[in-house]
Amino acid sequence: MTSARHTITWHPSGSFAGAVIAGVVVLGVGFVSSRPDIACCALPLLSWAAWMWRRRPADETEIGSEIDTQLVRDGASRLTATLQLRASADVEISHARMIVGGSRTVSAVLDCRETAQLVASSPVLHSGPCDVLAARFTVASADGSFVSQPTAVHEVSHTVRPEIVPLPRLLLPHRLHGLTGSHESTRPGDGGGFRDIHPFAPGDRLRRIDWKATARLSRRAGDLYVRRTFAASDATTVIVMDTGDELGESVAEWARGRPHKSGITSMDAAREAAVAIAVAYTEAGDQVALQNLALGTRQVRRGSGDRHRERLIATIAETRPNGVGVTRRRAPLVAAGAIIYVLSTFVDAEAASLAAMWRAVGHRVIAIDTLPAGTRHGLTPEQTTAHTILMMERDDRLVDMESTGVSVVRWADAPGVPRRDAQFSVLARERGRAR
Q1: Are 303 and 191 in the same domain?
Q2: N or C: which end of the chain has fewer CB within 10 A?
C-alpha cells in the first residue's frame, strides 16, 4: 500500500458565482423597475452565497490518499487497485479519475463524508515493473460552492513476477568442476555411478576395496582392487540478459511504446526464460549467477540455495529495458567451465559477439532467442522493407553464432520452428558427445 498527502487550494465554483451574479441582477432589476416582489427573489440566492462564503474552507486543506494493489492469478491474471480518500470535514464530494494498467480509465463521484473508496481492476499484460495506476481527483465542499484544482497525479508501480514455467531439460556444461553436487561427472570420485575396478593406490579408502574382485584378479599376495565411481559434481550457470530493447508482437508498436497494444514482448519472454533457468538450476543444487549487459544495472553473484533463488527471481522481475547503450570494453566475468545462457533478441550485434567469444574460450553457450513472432499489420511499405532488412541481418547473425558452436534456442513457439522441449532434448544429447 502506498499513501500520499495532497494540499489543495479552493476557489469559488460556478454555482457560487452564478448565485451571486443572478442575485445581483435580479436585485437590480427589482430596484430599477420598483418591483419589491422581484427584488425579494434575489434574497435566497444572495443569502445562500453569503452563508457559503462564511463557511468557506480553509485556504489550504490536506487530503490523504492510499492505494492498495493486489495481483490475482486465477486463470487470467488481473491486478486490482483500491483507492481510498481521507479528507477533512470541509470536503463533501470528490471526483476521482484512475488510469489502470495504462489503458483503462475509471472515474466516479465519491462521498467523502466517510472514507471514500474506489476499486478498479485490469488484466496483467506484461511482467516486470509496470505502472499500475495513475489517480487524480477534484474535491468540492458542501453544496458544491467551492471546488479545488485537480491534484497532482498519484502514481503507483507494481513489479509483476513472471510465472514459473518448467525448464524442459537441464543442460550441463561440457565438463563439471564442482566437488559435490547432483550431476555425474567424468572424473573418479564419490557420489556417482560405477566407473571401473582399479588396483589399490595411495589415497584410496579401505572401505572401497572390492573383495570379490580382489579374489578374482589378484596374481600375488598383497594385491588389492578397489571399486571406483564417478564423482557427483555441481554445475555453474550464468544467465546473461540483454535489456537493450523491448520488442513486441506488433511491429508497428516498436517505436510507439504503447505496452497495452504491443502484445507479448521480448522482455516478457526474457524474464520468463531467466526465471525458469534460475529455478531449475537452483533446485538441482547448482550455482547460478545473473549478468545484465546494460551498464550500471544490478548483477547477482553466483550462489545456490532457496534465498539465492528468491534473490534471483526478484532481480529478474525488476529488470526493465535500458536502451542500447555504449558497447562494453570488457566482457562480463564468468566462472571457468560454466554454461552460459545469453537471452537476447539479437537485433544488435553485442550479445551475439559476446556469445561467440565465450564459446571460443571453451564455455558451453546457449543463445535464447526472445524475439516473439511479429505481425506487420499497420506498417507502411517503407517500414515493411526496413523490417525485412533488419530480420535478414538478424538471421545472418544467428547463423554465424551457430557456426561458432553456440546453440540457438527459440523460446517462443513459432511456425516452422521445433517446440522448445524438442530443442532442449537435442541439446541434452549433445553434451554426451562433447565430453
Answers
A1: no
A2: C
Tell me if 22 is assigned to some domain: no
- pLDDT (tens digit per residue) in 138-183: 777 767 777 877 777 777 777 888 888 888 888 888 776 655 555 5
Co-location of 214 and 244 in the same domain: no
Q: How many domains are contained in the chain?
A: 3
Q: Tell me how far apart the alpha carbons of residues 130 and 61 are, in angstroms, rounded to a whole number.
A: 31
Q: How many angstroms from the chain centroid is the CA of residue 27?
A: 66
C-alpha grid cell for residue 406? 553456440
Residue 14 half-sphere exposure, CB side, CA atoms within 13 Å? 0
**Cα 194–chain centre separation:** 45
User: Is the domain of 331 the same as that of 218?
Assistant: no
- The domain of 204 spans 183-233
Single pTM value for the model: 0.73
Torsion 117-122-124-128 (CA) sign: negative
29 closest CA partner among 45, 13, 15: 45
Q: What digits encode the pLDDT tens for the residues 286-302?
A: 889 999 888 677 888 88
Three-class secondary structure of residue 138 per DSSP: strand
Q: Is residue 117 part of a domain?
A: yes
Q: What is the pLDDT of residue 433?
A: 44
What confidence score (pLDDT) does residue 228 get?
75
Please tell me whether residues 375 and 304 are part of one structural domain: yes
Which residues neighbour 333 within 8 Å (Cβ) at sequence distance 6 or greater? none
One domain for residues 62 and 81: yes
Cell representation of residue 358: 565465450
Residue 313 pLDDT level (bands cut at 50, 70, 90): very high
Range 274-289 average pLDDT: 90
Q: Which of 200, 233, 266 is the last residue of a domain?
A: 233
Find, among 266, 240, 279, the residue nearest to 367 by Cα: 240
The answer to whether residue 30 sits within a structural domain is no
Q: Is 351 helix (H, G, I), strand (E, B) or coil?
A: helix
The H or E element containing residue 289 is: strand 287-292
Residues 187 and 79 grouped into a single domain:
no
CB 159 within 8 A of CB 317: yes
**How are beta strands 364-369 and 339-344 bridged, if at all?**
parallel
Report the residue count for the chain: 435
